[in-house]
Design goal:
41% helix, 153 residues, 6 helices, Arc Repressor Mutant, subunit A
């Protein structure tokens, strides 16, 4: 199963919250409160995204915080993933590397993973942050949480 790591998933949540409030800077503490993520996690995500991408602007001071550098409809899921995880590739032989892997002399696939990787990259580049957001219903519907340690009759 292919699955995003928790940090990347949380990054999408943080960027999504910034997309909901595009005209202002949000401090990490507010992002933490609004998303339900731990402050340390939010700070770490923002630091990585600032260092490895061109997705965020940061301002210091009383009215400082973070905001998106681009409109959320121009930020792709691929950009977010690559900012946190590096290039999107299913296998090391499909990373367009000039060097061959240690199994290349016996491999019968002939580098065909590159074709799969390109399809995945294209798909993720075709999905914007906006596409993931539900502006009509900004927060999940409240539901009744099951009672833990409830005695069954």
């Amino acid at each position: 199963m292919l699955k995003l790591n928790k940090m990347t998933d949380s990054a999408v949540v943080c960027l999504g919250m910034l997309a909901r409030k595009p005209d202002r800077f949000m401090p990490a503490s507010e992002l933490s409160k609004e998303t339900g993520l731990k402050l340390y996690t939010v700070q770490k995500i923002l630091k990585v995204i600032l260092a490895k991408s061109d997705l965020l602007k940061a301002e210091r001071g009383v009215y400082g915080g973070y905001t998106l550098k681009k409109k959320s409809n121009n930020i792709t899921v691929a950009e977010i993933i690559e900012a946190l995880d590096g290039p999107i590739s299913l296998t090391s032989c499909g990373d367009k590397s000039d060097s061959l892997c240690q199994s290349s002399d016996i491999c019968f696939l002939g580098g065909k993973w590159n074709q799969v990787n390109e399809i995945i990259r294209k798909s993720l580049n075709d999905i914007s942050l906006d596409d993931l957001l539900n502006f009509d219903n900004p927060f999940p519907v409240e539901y009744e949480k099951p009672m833990l340690n409830k005695t069954m009759n």
